[in-house]
Amino acid sequence: MWDAEVDIAIAGAGGCGLVAALTVAEKGLQVAVFEKTDFVLGNTAASAGMIPAAGTRYQREIGIQETPEEMAEDILKKNHQESNPDLTLALSKVSGPLVEWMNDKLDMQFSLVTEFKYPGHRNLRMHAPPTRSGLELMKKLKQAVNDKDNIYLMLKSQVEKLILGDKGEVIGIDVQTTDGVQRIKAKKVILATNGFGGNTSMVKKFIPEISDALYFGYEANTGEGIEMALEIGADVSNMTAYQGHAAVNEATGLLVTWGTIMSGGFMVNQNGERFGNEAQGYSEFALEVVKQEVQNGYIIIDQDIYQNLLSIEDFKQLDEMDAFKSSDSIEDLAVKLGINVKSLKQTYTAFQKNEQGSSDQFGRTDFPKQLTGKLFGIKVSPALFHTQGGLNINEHAQVVNGQGNVIENLYAGGGTAVGVSGRHAYGYMSGNGLLAALGFGKIAGDHAVHMIQQKGME
Ligand SMILES: Cc1cc2nc3c(=O)[nH]c(=O)nc-3n(C[C@H](O)[C@H](O)[C@H](O)COP(=O)(O)OP(=O)(O)OC[C@H]3O[C@@H](n4cnc5c(N)ncnc54)[C@H](O)[C@@H]3O)c2cc1C
After folding, report:
1. Distance 116 CA to ligand 1 centre (A)
2. Tell me: the pLDDT tens digits for 429-446?
3. Measured CA angle at 150 (ends 145, 223), to 5 deg
């Protein structure tokens, strides 16, 4: 009846799936990862590779003492207390050990991102590989997977169905491969297929407010993990949650880091007017851009900010492609950007009068510097990056059913599971995506191994 048997089967070879696989393999169990596409990329490779973590040695080295409780408090404050506090704390607790484990065991060469602080982070908390890119993160994860002979990575293998035993427990999966459907027996199954950002009808159904915006995530993330689990009695929460982003440069297909704003820049519309508190966060600001008559924004920064951000890979590429327009005068910059000259000049003059800590007309209080010297501007579009609602899980990443009971042998993490971003665009705090992907990947892997080993001793 079975085509193959492993200890643990994982659906999806993104960040969540590979961290789970490496966690399991480290303990000596056999694990198979099934990836639908030809590639090991996922959203994780598209990300900026920045992982939030509390209490790390990188923070301590520069005098930051931070507890997981403080990190959880920040996440809950950003999402207006809309995420499950137990899951939020569980992820905050695993974050420090996760980052240090990835660095020490997987050769990540992490450092603390000190270039700027993201909205809602009380301390510098982002940890990233040297290029600050998810591609580098995924390359290192894939290398580590290739080095393990107890991990089987199968590409062009789409997980289609969960197979149940007599008591309703998960005992395996059906996988569509180039050789037809394979039935894989597994003691535990981990769903790491991300969310439903690539499924237009699901986005229209659950998050209509962002359904007209560009989808900037991995096309293959079409909600199958969620649907498969729903078929066997799982339940979902917070399906309206997502990470939007207000600043994709469509001409180059690159993300313009929100470090531009957090370092002291601002955004205007086609008329040269500001239209909100940019420093609240890039996710909710995507909706503000969607509301503009012409659904574009223009980020304005100065030479210092520009130079400082060149350490970020995407930004370096924007520089290499001359994606920013620049000028010594705001009027000339407006002409080059094709926006209203008089109005941008007025906006710029008013913006320069703001002082750090005092609120402007939109409630923004972060004005870390006056813009000086040469000015730079770039056209940006709003986008949906990934969805943040999904399967209900407990703090061990075990999937639970509508009654709150564990569905035996089934785990979920990353975009497949309910995250910690509440129910709205404003709930996304920078780093929540990779935190839920890598954090629940680690938690699921550890718990699945523990349960298998415990059963072996009975
Ligand atoms: C441009 C961009 C920048 C971002 N920057 C950051 C950042 O700096 N920090 C941060 O925390 N978050 C960031 N995020 C969010 C973050 O990338 C995601 O939250 C995270 O990568 C999700 O990881 P995952 O493992 O759940 O999914 P993914 O990495 O997307 O992996 C899912 C995998 O599952 C596969 N799959 C799907 N269906 C099936 C199936 N049925 N069978 C088998 N395989 C399947 C897919 O092909 C894919 O390879 C960013 C997102 C984007 C788009």
Report:
1. 24
2. 999 999 999 999 999 999
3. 60
